[in-house]
């Protein structure tokens, strides 16, 4: 068997190799990282949050671990975790293992790493198997790590999570209890840049009221709970609605709980911003505003009751006013919790002309609205349009959009990088920092597939390529709770500087997942690796069959 000792040896080797290479990062990104670090919760708050994760996961071992937040200086300015044996003065069921990390997320990731690679445990979503912790020895008998301990440094600063549609495919009916579990899962996987989209309609309600839009107007605007993502993107309006007032209140309350926990764990939430999507009534209140009626998107049979929403042109001064008001309202409700805002104005919706100067002015206006509300705002944009609408987004148009804001004020998600990477043919987004993302799972359809080789090598190739502008890895699946192997490997890439050997990795994966080594299972995973988990056809939706066709 591929022993744990070998794995730790390899890990150590990787760290040694890496520490001799200075990671170059643009100064703008460094100063953003410093600013975000300065907003984090205190060390004691984060340490308590990490202990609480342990308590929910493994209450029997609450006294076996000692957690400590350490400065990035410990890892030459980078984020990292360190696992060491705790040399106790007295015997008994006291601490055995010490885990240090630069935030609570790194501590939780270190705990996860230890439980995986020292104790053979496995942690998955409940719907994809839940936790396998039977292999963890009882307190007092935890395995020791090698003398010098384990030190793992993030090769890139960020690990992003979620797609703007995940809220609708997976989370919409969740209560706090389910969210708390997900936030624990996120911390254990090392996610430090999660989208936080819950409750935004409550914020919009307050903002639009100040622009004299009525509740009735908004009833014709917001989608129902199950369709929020598409209403937010302007694909449809009022479908499945209206949203009762108690829904708005309850979602806002939930969002505050989610944000508090993200902050306690040392994560940087990504909040929504204004993309131009407005209620029809705005046209009556501001008759001179430049508001365009969009065409029929997809699913609502051209019925104007639901289709053909209105887009306020970013070059209109009202755009900046509304955009600023929305950011300010969020700061008022949540406090100064982030500088990173998502905006996808041109997602499946091309600008009216392809003139680069015009596109550049639109981009500048979107950023202006954000930065008026938060002077340090950074625009995080899904790069889906560069793939889905590549006939429009040719190099001049891409450059115009990407260069429409000051350098370092935009981060792009290379959304479908496992199958259709854009970084390769865009001179790395023309110098713009980007996150290498796994897309996967289209439409919340449960299909057994993935491309493990692309996940194990893609982020490493992207980061080590000439003039790389990659600043993170991410998971932008449309719906969650499927294909756990894909998400476990992808999450590890946030902490791996070299390419894991997938077949070897799968052996340890199956051992951990099933609680013991079974050679038939290892053989089965070998088959899966070469078939459904080497699904290189690049097709987004395999829903015609429950297992993908392997050509
Ligand atoms: C909203 O209506 C009030 C009262 O009619 C008016 O004074 C105010 O200027 C309006 N606000 C906007 C943004 O139109
Ligand atoms: C309104 O916006 C459109 C593009 O959406 C633009 O072509 C037009 O010139 C704008 N009109 C005014 C009056 O600014
Ligand atoms: C870059 O590659 C993507 C994905 O393979 C493709 O969709 C796009 O058209 C390409 N863009 C350019 C400018 O070549
Ligand atoms: C990297 O940047 C250097 C300096 O600007 C340039 O000469 C070189 O061609 C670039 N390499 C690639 C692969 O773009
Ligand atoms: C996956 O498929 C590609 C292309 O069909 C092939 O080159 C590669 O060897 C396969 N990898 C595995 C692990 O089967």
From TrEMBL:
Which keywords accompany this UniProt record?
Glycoprotein, Glycosidase, Hydrolase, Signal
Q: Name one Pfam family in it.
A: NAGLU_N
Signal peptide positions (record): 1-22
Catalytic reaction equation(s): Hydrolysis of terminal non-reducing N-acetyl-D-glucosamine residues in N-acetyl-alpha-D-glucosaminides
Q: Which residues form the Alpha-N-acetylglucosaminidase C-terminal domain?
A: 505-547
Q: Does the keyword Protease apply?
A: no
Broad EC category: hydrolase
Q: A Gene Ontology MF term for this entry? A: alpha-N-acetylglucosaminidase activity
Q: Which SUPFAM superfamilies match?
A: (Trans)glycosidases
Protein known as: Alpha-N-acetylglucosaminidase
Organism listed in the record = Salix udensis
